[in-house]
Write a structure and sequence with these properties.
Mean pLDDT: 91
Number of strands: 21
Distance between the termini: 23 Å
Number of domains: 3
Radius of gyration: 22 Å
Helix content: 25-40%
Low-confidence stretches: 1-9, 12-22
Length: 431
């Protein structure tokens, strides 16, 4: 099985887009629309966003591209064909056939703003290496804890209010957002660096998509504020933080520090730190003062909601610990780190790793698709663990509890390191 070089973390959904059904757009028309918009838009970065884009249907594997590649054939100004079997389909960026590509899954949303935002987001991931930006993809486990979630929700509300406001009111809301951020990061050692990495990677990409869509469509910044508020509704923030905070911080930097994108040090991009530096240093405030400010953003209601969620999550964690840490499991090596996932459903199990519900796992042994339940993986996603039946027999297709494995020839199941653990190894390799 041949794999591509994935530049950005591959996700199974348009993580930056609203999770609702909408009228879809013809792929060829969408590519032409993006080409025209990109050619006429302001250049946001030293490297142009205009470049190879490929749209792929994960079910039919139909591919439509704006550049030639592989066996794709030209039809009416675009290139059509079938995406090669065995190669993943995701919203991501990749190196394929000697070119860097932005890939977006079909169907595309009918809303022009959301469509352009997603295409520009993935196009930014395509140029990230050329810009010299360090690509990191950590999991912010502290954002699955009650206090971490509460203070992030306060920050999101303040950022949205800042986008909607001007003058002193807007600046006051930014300072509130930064105070809530300081409160959150102070509770968890190392949190500031993890959040910086997420915002430098996905946050800058989503800001780019948002800025591009605003400029091209002419929509008001209230659209961005509304999406910042909507982000709060996501079930988890541990991997998707940048999608919520990144666009708001970038747009506020456009307001308070124009030109902030020029000369960014790709190895240490810190959007939040830039926003701190762009405003007058805030007067020192006590924790009580920060809590009092948070009351203006609905702190009490959020505390009630998060208390209820914490109880639900505790039960879910206990179930996954029993299934994936203590129970009978299949452990799969992922030498290419190909774990495709929905960033809105990840659940942290602390030192045990993170659970990725509904993920797709790919390796030289084949492809495992989860229909129910989740896969447990460490932070580097070099392997994954799924629940397993009592016996597993090698076959072209293997069914397990909530999953289906399409197995490549030449692989067999063997006992793992502990009782109840099974692994896949090549035929001929010792147990």
């Amino acid at each position: 099985m041949r794999f591509v070089n994935w530049i950005a973390a591959a996700t199974l959904i348009a993580a930056a887009s609203p999770l609702v059904a909408q009228e879809t757009q013809d792929p060829a028309e969408a590519l032409r629309e993006m080409e025209i918009a990109c050619a006429g838009a302001e250049e946001l970065w030293p490297v142009t966003l205009c470049g190879p884009v490929i749209l792929v249907d994960p079910n039919s594997r139909e591919a439509v591209a704006n550049r030639p590649g592989g066996s794709l054939e030209e039809h009416d100004g675009v290139y059509r064909g079938e995406w090669p079997a065995g190669m993943p389909v995701a919203n991501t960026a990749l190196s394929w056939e000697g070119q860097q590509w932005a890939m977006v899954m079909l169907p595309l949303r009918g809303d022009r703003f959301d469509r352009l935002r997603l295409l520009a987001h993935e196009s930014f991931h395509r140029i990230q290496p050329e810009l010299g930006h360090t690509i990191a993809d950590p999991i912010a486990a502290h954002l699955d804890e009650m206090d971490g979630r509460v203070w992030l929700r306060m920050e999101l509300r303040a950022l949205a209010q800042a986008l909607e406001s001007g003058g002193e009111a807007g600046q006051a809301a930014v300072l509130d957002a930064l105070a809530f951020r300081t409160m959150r990061q102070g509770l968890y050692p190392g949190a500031a660096e993890i959040e910086r990495q997420l915002e430098a990677h996905e946050g800058i990409a989503e800001y780019t998509g948002m800025r591009f869509a605003l400029d091209v469509t002419g929509e008001d910044i209230e659209r961005a504020a509304g999406l910042t508020r909507r982000f709060e509704q996501r079930p988890t923030y541990v991997r998707s933080l940048g999608y919520g905070t990144g666009p708001a911080i970038g747009l506020l930097l456009d307001r308070y520090q124009p030109g902030w994108r020029d000369g960014l040090d790709g190895a240490a991009i810190d959007p939040g730190g830039l926003l701190f530096a762009a405003l007058p240093a805030p007067t020192a405030v006590s924790e009580a003062d920060v809590v009092a400010r948070a009351q203006l953003y609905g702190l009490d209601a959020v505390l009630t909601e998060e208390t209820e969620r914490a109880e639900r999550i505790a039960a879910e964690r206990a179930r996954y610990l029993q299934e994936l840490v203590e129970g009978r499991v299949l452990v799969l090596d992922l030498p290419d780190n190909l774990l495709l996932f929905n960033p809105n459903t990840i659940l942290s199990l602390g030192d045990h790793g993170n659970v990725y519900p509904g993920a797709i796992l790919m390796g030289p042994w084949g492809q495992l698709t989860l229909h129910d339940g989740g896969a447990l993986a460490p932070g580097d996603r070099s392997r994954a663990t799924v629940a397993a039946p009592e016996t597993l027999d090698a076959a072209a297709t293997v069914d397990g509890p909530g999953w289906t494995l399409v197995l490549e020839e030449g692989w067999r199941f063997v006992p793992g390191a502990r009782q109840g653990e099974t692994r896949l190894v090549p035929v001929g390799q010792p147990d």
